[in-house]
Amino acid sequence: MKSAEHSPLTRKLSAFVALSDVELAVLERLHQRRRSFVAGREMVHQGQTTQAAYILSAGWVCSYKLQADGTRQIVDFQVPGDFLGLRSVLLRTSDHSFEPVVDIEAAKVMKSDLLDAFVHNPRLATAILWAASRDEAMVVEHLVGIGRRDAEARMAHFLLELGSRLALVGIGSKEGFDCPLTQYHLADTLGLSAVHVNRILRQLRESGLVTFRDGHVTFHDHRGLVSLADFDPAYLDQTGPLLK
């Protein structure tokens, strides 16, 4: 793993606050319990009592809720630089499950360490609150997408959002990004069938907007895709009010 100074989380938080040497040292301590997790094996299950969160350093994770009939609704995907299970540090139980999409690297953060960091480093606490607020804004946007956008716009918006999130940590751009998600992941996220997902991706490709093939998303007409999705990235607050 990279040192915390060069970690995706540090890069993301640095968009909000100019981190001091002391704050970087705190982030290094929060990264000290580093672990690897294999793809497909649940890290945290819905209803689990836990007093820890994770900082994702490498790989992708999906968070989801299981329904009574055994189906799942994917709530979001976590990418490098994201926290996993931050709410469960304060709530008694985890309200959803986490599962690595690919093999990942993550640092386990105990509740006591996180709260101690918040007490003694209020600017860092504010930056982490900013990151958590972005996560909440994305969940709201996903609800709007499922409820109000047609399938093409929903897919376009989701891919643009992923590109923006990955660009913030240096692993995505307006040209595209590597993406390990399957059409089944996309279906469970966007409220579509896998067959419908395949058809929508083909339509977007044939329209010359975007191609998703062999684990890579390529934006052919980024501006056109933004227009189709009516994508306004303001909710992502990619460059927050940089605190000095």
Tell me what you see in this structure.
This protein is α+β, with helices and mostly antiparallel strands and 244 residues long. The protein has two domains: 4-125, Jelly Rolls; 138-236, Winged helix-like DNA-binding domain superfamily/Winged helix DNA-binding domain (Arc Repressor Mutant, subunit A). It has helices at residues 8-13, 21-30, 111-120, 122-148, 151-168, 183-190, 194-206, 222-229; strands at residues 34-37, 52-58, 61-66, 72-78, 83-84, 97-100, 104-110, 176-178, 210-213, 216-219. The strands form three sheets. Strands 1-7-2-5 form a four-stranded antiparallel sheet. Strand 9 (210-213) and strand 10 (216-219) form a beta hairpin. Helix 3 (111-120) packs across helix 4, helix 5 packs across helix 7 and helix 5 crosses helix 8. The two termini are 28 Å apart. This is Crp/Fnr family transcriptional regulator. GO terms for molecular function: DNA binding. Residues 149-223 form the HTH crp-type domain.
Helix content: 40-55%
Unreliable spans are none
**Gross morphology:** globular
Please, what is the oligomeric state?
single chain
Tell me the CATH superfamily of the largest domain.
Jelly Rolls
Q: Strand fraction band?
A: 15-25%
Number of helices: 8
